[in-house]
Amino acid sequence: MSVVLQFVGNPSLASRAIEWLGSGSFSHVDIVLPDGRLLGARSDKIGGAPAGVQIRTPDYDKWFAVSRITLELSKSQTKQFMDYAKKQIGKPYDKLAIFSFIVNRNWVEEDSWFCSELVMACCNQVTGLFEHPLAVAKNKIDPCTAFAILSTYGKVDKVI
To answer: CA-CA distance, 76 to 145, in Å (whole number)?
Structure first.
């Protein structure tokens, strides 16, 4: 079994700033569900879904860069990842945690999420995925850093 993560770059000013500050091509990450829909945390109402952790259609936004990482996991690990992700649906976007990148505040709350924070929290739920605990809190990991970490655990496919 596997979990697929989709990392994207967007031409909006906010997305370009995230990419620049993260030193990479990605400003967002979603979990690709088996039916192709995307589960992730967004700060804006987009694709007919409200802000926060939602399931959106595969074409809910326009991207200029798309890469996917496939994490090959056992059935049990896949269930751990997906069960945790689905329990987060409806939670708000973690606007305060975004400031942790600026003020270096290191807090981790599970009542709201931003995209890469959510993905790394899901990965932390998978028994045996990470041999050692992450060196930094998941709320300090931007999409580019998540891509770099998780690319060592899975197969990378460039889509666009």
So the answer is: 26
Domain count, the chain: 1
Radius of gyration of the chain (CA): 14
Could you tell me the two tokens for 152?
Answer: 């060592």
Whichever domain contains 72, its CATH number is 3.90.1720.10
Cα dihedral: 57, 62, 64, 69 (round 10) = -10
- Domain interval for residue 10: 2-158
- Cβ atoms of 78 and 107 within 8 Å: the answer is no
pLDDT digits 0-9 by tens, 82-138: 999 999 999 999 887 767 666 666 667 788 999 999 999 999 999 999 988 888 877
Which pLDDT tens digit goes with each residue over 28-69? Answer: 999 999 999 999 999 999 878 899 999 999 999 989 899 999
